[in-house]
Structure formats: C-alpha cells, structure tokens
Amino acid sequence: MMKCVEAGHEIVALAHAHPPETSISDDKEEMDSYLFQTVGSSAVAAIAECMGNLPFYRKEIGGSAVTQALEYEKAIEGDETEDLFELLSEVKRNHPDVGGVSVGAIFSAYQANRVQHVCDRLGLEMLAYLWHREQVELLREMVANGVNAILIKVAAYKLGPADLGKSLEEMEPKLVELSQTYGIHACGEGGEFESFTLDCPLFKRRIVIDECRHVVHSQSEDAPVVYLRIAKLHTEPK
Questions:
Q1: Quick one: pLDDT at residue 209?
Q2: Which terminal CB of the chain, N or C, has fewer other CB atoms within 10 Å?
Q3: Integer angstrom CA distances of residue 43 from 24, 46, 50, 169
Q4: Phi, psi of 26, rounded to the nearest 5 degrees
Q5: What angle do CA 80, 217, 223 make, to 5 degrees?
Q6: Are 111 and 65 in contact (CB under 8 A)?
Q7: Cβ neighbour number for residue 220 with a 10 Å cutoff
C-alpha cells in the first residue's frame, strides 16, 4: 500500500478474507490456504483503525483450493478465489469509483493469477508494485522505510518459535543469511514465514500487542510450523 500511495493512488477501503470465527477462537487461525494469509486475522481490524478508521470489509473464507492449477480461467464453485470475488464485489458496490486493488505478491503466480482474474471480472486494476522484486533488497527497503512488522508464523528450516514476535529489522541479518545459505525467500514468499505490521508511515496510530501465545500447527524437528495467536492488543498515538 505504501507503494500505491507513492505512485499517487488513494486508499479508500481495506478488505480482509478471514477464517471462520470459531476457528480463530479455537486457536485454528491457520487454514493452510493457498491464497490468503489467515494467521493474525483476529488483529487485522486494528490496521483499519490505525489508518484513520478506513472502511473495513470482511468476508469469511468458505471455500478451499478446489483447483490448484497455476491458472484460474473461470469461476469455480467452492473455490476460495470466489470468496475474494464476493469480498471485492462488496467493496465495489459501496465504492463505485474504486479503480484498483493493492496486491503484495512478489513471486506467487498462483496468487497473482487469481487476483488478476477477479479484478478482470470486476473491472479493477491489479496494483502489484512488489512483483518480481529482488527479495533481500526489498526486505532492506522495508526496514529502511519504517515498516515495523513482526514475524507471526514460521515454517522453514532454521526458523523456530524463538523468532516469533521479532521485527523484520531484528530478523534481517538472519533472513539474509538463510537466503544466501539455504535459498529461502528473504521476504517469506515461499511460505517460510508470515508477518504482521504494527506500524508504518501510513499509520496514524501504532499497534501494541498486550497478550499473545504460541500455537503449534505442525511439529517437526527441522521446521516446525508455529504461529502467534494475538489475544489482546491496543492502539496508541504515534
């Protein structure tokens, strides 16, 4: 979104596809979705607050990856891509002048193709300013430009529970080393980790986590999948 604003676009609304509420309350935020990040869903509303209480649209994810093919050429009933279509359709109904959708994809053609398909159906432009950026360079750029994001999920060799809650700035040396040594994606584009933004230049307030806990999604000696369940937070003036 920072790149969108830099390019002259105005952010008019935020949209979020989330797991069922019962899944969140039962510490089952991780849905293993092919399209959406679901870990941290319980805290996303705070981002809208921090961005000046922008209109915030939510849609429960009811579908799954019915087709896992790289391309998505037509609507498929029960596929999670249709949840995205319904979510953005609601935004479009309430904001008829909206012209584009900000997408953070870097290398996932699977995700980009599905977002593009939905955008084409709705007459929207997909704004993917991070597409094919070199990831070590991009990681350093995010840190240098004041993005305070923390790791809230790890799922890669040499990443573990001790890394959860650490900022990208704190993790930068380790992520760069793992990228150079083992070939992991320094921005987590291969699913190695997921992050949650606590503060950035677009925020008018910052997010403070008051209470969280580790949830083990799958156990592994080499690469356990563990995430932070954010149980309580507040926002404060910057």
A1: 98
A2: C
A3: 11, 6, 12, 21
A4: -95, 15
A5: 110
A6: no
A7: 12
**Residue ranges in the chain assigned as alpha helix (H):** 2-6, 21-25, 45-50, 80-94, 109-122, 135-144, 168-182
Q: Which pTM was predicted?
A: 0.94
Residue type, 65: A
**DSSP assignment, residue 161?**
G
State the DSSP string of 6-67: HTT-----EEEEE--HHHHHTT------SS---TTGGGTHHHHHHTTS--EEEEE---B-S-
Token pair recorded at residue 114:
């599905």
What pLDDT, in 10s, does the model give residues 107-141? 999 999 999 999 999 999 999 999 999 999 999 99
- Cβ-count burial of 147 within 10 angstroms (0-12 exposed, 13-18 middle, 19+ buried)? buried
Residue 25's pLDDT band (boundaries 50, 70, 90)?
A: low
- Quote the CA–CA distance of 78 and 190 in Å, as a whole number: 25
C-alpha to C-alpha distance for 203 and 185, rounded to whole angstroms: 27
Q: What is the mean pLDDT of residues 12-23?
A: 91
Mode of pairing for the β-strands spanning 225-237 and 205-218:
antiparallel
Q: 162-214, pLDDT tens digit by residue?
A: 999 999 999 999 999 999 999 999 999 999 999 999 999 999 999 999 999 99
